[in-house]
Amino acid sequence: MRTLKLSTVAAVSALGTVICFVAGAVAMGSSGVGVLIPETGRPGLDWIAAVDDAGWLFFAGAWLVILMGFLGIIALVGFYDTLRLAGPVMILAPILGAVGLTLVTVSHLIPIAMGYAIVPAYMDADPGGQAALAATADTFAAIALVINAAGNFLNWGVVVPLYAVAILTTRALPRWIGWLGLLVGALASWLGLLSPASSVISAISNIGFIGFFVFMLSMGIALLRRRSRVDEASQASSQPPT
User: Fold this and answer.
1) Which of the 8 DSSP states describes residue 89?
2) pLDDT (tens digit, 9 = 90+) per residue, 186-222?
3) Is residue 236 part of a domain?
4) Which domain holds residue 118?
5) In a domain, 94, yes or no
6) Could you give the dihedral angle defined by the CA atoms of residues 154, 21, 208 and 216, in that order, rounded to the nearest 10 degrees?
7) Pick from 204, 200, 175: which is nearest to 188 by CA?
8) Nearest CA to 37 among 147, 163, 122, 175?
9) How many domains does the chain have?
10) 20 lies in a domain?
11) In contact, 232 and 194? CB cutoff 8 Å
């Protein structure tokens, strides 16, 4: 444990975050369920029917998304180890990152619970019971969507830009990753606030969503390469002169 660097743990966790996201999305998509958190109203009822038909594959993908959140928390906390020299304000990044991804993970756990409890009950209920369960499902879906939006705003709009600015000022990692982080904040978070007003803005905001995972992948690779260069330099300095 003494030789294990926090930055290395963060790098591996960042890569694991991306892998779990892709695997989870593929599993849920293959099951016929397009999204983990349902919308309210008619789309929510379609989601219930799709989850009922999907079976275990949906839940396998959903739990991979939960694992993604756990690994993402470790990654966003661990990035601080490399970028803390940017200044005292950087202490906010791991704290807000942990809070943000915890909120996102909770928002993902709610529809999983809905899949286990509400979906089978709805499918077996009479019309009156289905109406009551549909209202309950809408309530839980709305809660999940609000919690998810709050967590994503912290992650994309605050934490990622903080790390991005730290990269640009310290040059501890390639500067293009810093610019990518600022782009993620601008598109996924700040522009995303206007997405309900326009489908075009919503589509552009989705680019920032994908950019977040590119950012995590880039951070993981860059941190591992940085550790490799540090190790090589340490070995070279420890060798006796010839």
Assistant:
1) G
2) 988 877 666 665 666 677 788 888 999 999 999 999 9
3) no
4) 6-223
5) yes
6) 70
7) 204
8) 147
9) 1
10) yes
11) no
